[in-house]
Amino acid sequence: QVQLVESGGGLVQTGDSLRLSCAASGRTFSSYAMAWFRQAPGKEREFVAGINWSGGSTRYADSVKGRCTISRDNAKNTVYLKMNSPKPEDTAVYYCAAVFASSAKIATMRDEYDYWGQGTQVTVSS
Questions:
Q1: Count H helices, E strands: the chain?
Q2: pLDDT tens digit sequence for 2-37
Q3: Do 79 and 6 touch, CB atoms closer than 8 A?
Q4: What is the pLDDT of residues 56-96, one digit of tens each?
Q5: How far is CA 44 from CA 48, 85, 105, in A?
Q6: Which of 123, 117, 125, 86 shows the shortest CA–CA distance to 5?
Q7: What is the maximum span of the chain, computed from C-alpha positions, in angstroms?
Protein backbone atom coordinates (compact mmCIF):
# COMPACT_ATOMS: atom_id res chain seq x y z
CA GLN A 1 0.00 0.00 0.00
CA VAL A 2 1.30 3.44 -0.94
CA GLN A 3 -0.10 6.78 0.13
CA LEU A 4 0.76 9.82 -1.94
CA VAL A 5 0.56 13.48 -0.94
CA GLU A 6 1.16 16.24 -3.47
CA SER A 7 2.28 19.77 -2.68
CA GLY A 8 3.64 22.83 -4.44
CA GLY A 9 0.64 23.93 -6.45
CA GLY A 10 -0.80 27.41 -6.48
CA LEU A 11 -1.13 30.47 -8.65
CA VAL A 12 1.80 31.20 -10.96
CA GLN A 13 2.35 33.48 -13.91
CA THR A 14 3.64 32.60 -17.33
CA GLY A 15 7.40 32.95 -17.24
CA ASP A 16 7.61 31.68 -13.69
CA SER A 17 8.69 28.18 -12.82
CA LEU A 18 7.10 25.81 -10.37
CA ARG A 19 8.00 22.57 -8.71
CA LEU A 20 5.48 20.04 -7.54
CA SER A 21 6.38 17.42 -4.97
CA CYS A 22 4.79 14.10 -4.17
CA ALA A 23 5.70 12.43 -0.90
CA ALA A 24 5.07 8.71 -0.65
CA SER A 25 4.62 6.57 2.41
CA GLY A 26 6.07 3.10 2.74
CA ARG A 27 9.54 1.60 2.64
CA THR A 28 9.35 0.25 -0.91
CA PHE A 29 9.08 3.53 -2.79
CA SER A 30 12.02 2.56 -4.97
CA SER A 31 10.00 -0.39 -6.31
CA TYR A 32 7.37 1.89 -7.84
CA ALA A 33 7.22 3.68 -11.12
CA MET A 34 5.80 7.15 -10.61
CA ALA A 35 3.94 9.59 -12.79
CA TRP A 36 2.21 12.93 -12.88
CA PHE A 37 -1.19 13.34 -14.49
CA ARG A 38 -3.37 16.42 -14.73
CA GLN A 39 -7.02 17.15 -15.19
CA ALA A 40 -8.43 20.45 -16.38
CA PRO A 41 -12.09 21.35 -15.88
CA GLY A 42 -14.29 19.43 -18.28
CA LYS A 43 -11.41 17.36 -19.60
CA GLU A 44 -10.12 13.84 -19.12
CA ARG A 45 -7.21 13.18 -16.80
CA GLU A 46 -4.08 13.07 -18.94
CA PHE A 47 -0.53 11.82 -18.57
CA VAL A 48 2.11 14.51 -18.07
CA ALA A 49 5.33 12.74 -17.16
CA GLY A 50 6.56 9.45 -15.77
CA ILE A 51 9.72 8.01 -14.26
CA ASN A 52 10.76 4.45 -13.68
CA TRP A 53 11.77 2.98 -10.32
CA SER A 54 15.43 3.95 -10.56
CA GLY A 55 15.01 7.33 -12.20
CA GLY A 56 16.97 6.14 -15.19
CA SER A 57 14.07 6.34 -17.59
CA THR A 58 11.59 9.15 -18.08
CA ARG A 59 8.75 9.91 -20.46
CA TYR A 60 6.84 13.09 -21.22
CA ALA A 61 3.65 14.12 -22.94
CA ASP A 62 4.28 16.07 -26.12
CA SER A 63 2.48 19.06 -24.61
CA VAL A 64 5.10 19.49 -21.88
CA LYS A 65 8.21 18.04 -23.49
CA GLY A 66 11.10 20.46 -23.12
CA ARG A 67 9.33 22.42 -20.39
CA CYS A 68 8.98 19.80 -17.66
CA THR A 69 11.40 17.63 -15.78
CA ILE A 70 10.37 14.71 -13.62
CA SER A 71 12.81 13.41 -11.03
CA ARG A 72 12.79 11.32 -7.91
CA ASP A 73 14.74 10.99 -4.69
CA ASN A 74 14.31 7.45 -3.43
CA ALA A 75 16.05 8.29 -0.15
CA LYS A 76 13.33 10.87 0.52
CA ASN A 77 10.44 8.87 -0.95
CA THR A 78 9.61 11.85 -3.13
CA VAL A 79 8.99 12.50 -6.80
CA TYR A 80 9.12 15.97 -8.31
CA LEU A 81 7.79 17.75 -11.36
CA LYS A 82 9.48 20.95 -12.36
CA MET A 83 7.77 23.08 -14.96
CA ASN A 84 9.45 25.99 -16.68
CA SER A 85 7.54 28.73 -18.51
CA PRO A 86 4.09 27.45 -17.61
CA LYS A 87 1.23 28.41 -19.89
CA PRO A 88 -2.42 29.12 -19.08
CA GLU A 89 -3.29 25.80 -20.74
CA ASP A 90 -1.25 24.05 -18.04
CA THR A 91 -3.89 25.06 -15.51
CA ALA A 92 -5.24 21.88 -13.96
CA VAL A 93 -5.30 19.71 -10.89
CA TYR A 94 -2.06 17.74 -10.89
CA TYR A 95 -2.09 14.20 -9.54
CA CYS A 96 0.75 11.95 -8.51
CA ALA A 97 0.37 8.26 -9.32
CA ALA A 98 2.29 5.06 -8.55
CA VAL A 99 2.44 1.51 -9.80
CA PHE A 100 4.62 -1.37 -8.62
CA ALA A 101 7.00 -1.90 -11.50
CA SER A 102 10.58 -3.04 -11.80
CA SER A 103 11.06 -2.51 -15.51
CA ALA A 104 12.15 0.53 -17.46
CA LYS A 105 8.76 0.76 -19.13
CA ILE A 106 6.72 3.82 -18.18
CA ALA A 107 2.96 3.51 -18.35
CA THR A 108 0.99 6.44 -19.69
CA MET A 109 -2.60 5.30 -19.22
CA ARG A 110 -4.57 6.25 -16.15
CA ASP A 111 -5.79 2.71 -15.45
CA GLU A 112 -2.24 1.37 -15.38
CA TYR A 113 -1.59 3.12 -12.07
CA ASP A 114 -2.82 1.72 -8.79
CA TYR A 115 -2.25 4.52 -6.31
CA TRP A 116 -3.20 8.18 -6.52
CA GLY A 117 -2.75 11.32 -4.49
CA GLN A 118 -5.53 13.80 -3.81
CA GLY A 119 -4.19 16.33 -6.30
CA THR A 120 -2.85 19.86 -6.13
CA GLN A 121 -4.29 22.78 -8.07
CA VAL A 122 -2.03 24.68 -10.45
CA THR A 123 -3.38 27.88 -11.95
CA VAL A 124 -1.33 29.76 -14.52
CA SER A 125 -2.23 33.34 -15.29
CA SER A 126 -1.00 35.26 -18.31
A1: 0, 11
A2: 999 999 999 999 989 999 999 999 779 999 999 999
A3: no
A4: 999 999 999 999 999 999 999 999 999 999 999 999 999 99
A5: 12, 23, 23
A6: 117
A7: 41
